[in-house]
Automatic annotation (TrEMBL):
Name of this chain's protein: 5-formyltetrahydrofolate cyclo-ligase
One Pfam family from the record: 5-FTHF_cyc-lig
Superkingdom of the organism of origin: Archaea
Family: Belongs to the 5-formyltetrahydrofolate cyclo-ligase family.
Keyword Nuclease: no
Keyword Cell inner membrane annotated: no
Keywords, in A-Z order: ATP-binding, Nucleotide-binding
InterPro entries: FTHF_cligase, FTHF_cligase-like_sf, NagB/RpiA_transferase-like
Amino acid sequence: MELPREPQLLRKAILQKRNQTSLLDRNLAFSTIKFYLLDLPEFQNASSILGYYGKSSSGEFDTSSLLAEIISMKNKRLFLPRCDSEKIALDLYFIQNLTDDIEKGAYGIMEPKIRIEHRVPLTNIDLIFVPGSVFDRSGRRYGYGAGYYDSLLQKFQGIKIAFAFEFTVMDFPLAVHSKDVPVDIIITPSEIIRAIPS
């Protein structure tokens, strides 16, 4: 199938296909992705990880099992973002327990509860899992249109990793803005793509 190159049409086409993927297939795919991730040197060397709670009802991978594993690791700390809808920005919070520390927030996404003592600056983070809808092999990405990650990634100096189905990674370059920040690594069920900026 010939995919449109226009960003909004491409995102719509890919999200439609992703949403048609069964929950079983999504879970099997993410199980393989998680296997690759846990063996990745960049992940093994990271101590402070900003994750995200995948929204299964929107076709995202259910990341909860990965988040729980990170919490259980003695040499790692997990952080999750909370949407500030007024500023279109993300506030970051330390997570110790996936039951006690989170609640349903903006867009129906599970987010950290507001606990000032758990809030941290971006400088505390050395690896980010970046959600997205469409990618290319140079690490460019389309999000979901709200722009929450844009300013965060512009200020971030660490490693950026995305999880994706093979069909969401394009062989042609995505049309992005000059200030858009690509991810460093894309993990699919069949390969680890180390982005080479073009």
